[in-house]
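Throughout our pipeline, every protein is held as a single compact record rather than as scattered files. The remainder of this section carries one protein's record, kept here as part of the documentation.

===
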Amino acid sequence: MPRHLDLTALRSFVAVAEAGGVTRAAGFLNLTQSAVSMQLKRLEQALGLDLLDRSERRVRLTAAGEQLLGYARRLLALNDEVYARMTAQDYEGEIVLGVPHDIVYPAIPQVLNRFAADFPRVRVQLISSYTTRLREQFRRGEVDLILTTEDRCGPGGETLAELPLVWVGAIGGHAWKQRPLRLAYEHACIFRQDVEEALDRAGIPWQMAVESDSIRTVEASVSADLAVHTVVEGAMPPYVERISHGGALPDLPRTLIDLYVSDVAPGPTLEALAGLIRQAYRTG
């Protein structure tokens, strides 16, 4: 007798795996947490396997879950392609989306995946840069919509979230204990000055150990335990962890995540993409 996998349960499983937890995944799927949890339980029962390790605060995949994830993504992609091609209106064109590199993850890949399923003929060009540069490109009409990290929302923008900066370092690292405190930042990072001022107020000596135009260089240096860095809460890059410093490092300011959408050529696809971004941050 043939057996069938529940695509709805598979979609919830992939969303939880990519979001790192049931809460964020439930919001993105527009479902309750209990509904997502029930779908995951039914999927595990159908396969007779534990797919998620729930022993830690952040949900992790088991070996079986990791194996299923690739299959699940392919099944869902094929399902979405068939549905979109058979039912979607023939919207075409290109949208240019600008996002600061330090908040691309975890929301934007999920947004782009969902948008591509709904509008398979619309190309989204993702530009990753600094807030100041993105604001200038938006002003010149080179970008259709942008996300920014800033301390106040500008004219025409809307604030999606207000999040604190947090200290990050190498997994199990000790660089945060050293004095002077070794920092790693990009030259144009808007958070640098606030962090330096917070350290000065706390009387903590520091030195800029790593300066670069590349976020990858900064992340590599931090993951090697050569320095520490700060990120927007919830936007943790791989191979680093939030530092549990117990008050040894100062609290950091909060930043706004703002959205700006062009009103020059509004349309259903642009508004749909903006709506998915809003939804991702409402449930983040």
Summary: Residues 106 and 234 are 8 Å apart (CA to CA). The chain has nine helices and eleven strands. The radius of gyration is 21 Å.
